[in-house]
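Before the break, one more example. Copy the sequence into your notebook; we will annotate it together after we see the structure.
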Amino acid sequence: MHTKLDIARNWLPRYTGTEIAAFGDYILLTNFRGYVESFAKRHDVPVLGTDRPMQTATSGNLTIINYGIGSPNAALIMDLLVARMPKGVLFLGKCGGLKASTEIGHFILPIAAIRGDGTSDDYFPPEVPALPSFKLHKFVSDRILDHKQDYRTGVVYTTNRRVWEWDEQFQQRLQDLSCLAIDMETATIFIVGHKNGIPRGALLLVSDVPVMPEGIKTEESDKMVTETFVDLHLTIGIEAMRDIGLQGEEIKHLRYER
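Here is what the structure looks like once it is written out:
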């Protein structure tokens, strides 16, 4: 295996238990196995890769992948997807709200992500912004409104720290940066998607408000969020990506090379 493509073609089935030809042109990414199981149940399709690090389910031209958690795994799946070169990737993630305007259950469509993850530095210099493919987000926005839901737009901070809620200095930095929310993967997905020429977006669900002691996520609170909001989160993602496929719109940004 001498090239990145050679490696990706070998490793994508290895990590997912799914042959390359079985992946759809459109991809939903998640870091929760329950999303994949719910998708599979809705469409009466099997979950593949139950003995592998990543699980998948495919219905028609749409595949959902649980890639695990954290920015290294997010970069890994976005690298491995070059073996399939999907026409669009949408990350369905959870995030912590950092503003009074972000309440549990709100949806966020990030206009950009601050690269506090570290992983993305291996792909581009720090000056390169982590951005979504905005045309993809337009489809998602339309579907959110169809379901009579409100959403927020703004900048998300992506960190590689999982336990930071106790750190007042870090919390102050988040305030100084005027971030709307915090997560662990969005900037990585945007940057690695940019590097690999894969159209990408993120629909984030506010699952906690970690800047308040009573807002820090617990097992009990996360269960409540899952039972109350995850079904709609998944529905919007499925419908948006299916809309793109049905309309056949090109959502990849053009690159102008000198």
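The chain has seven helices and eight strands. The first helix runs from residue 4 to 16. Try to locate both features in your own notes.
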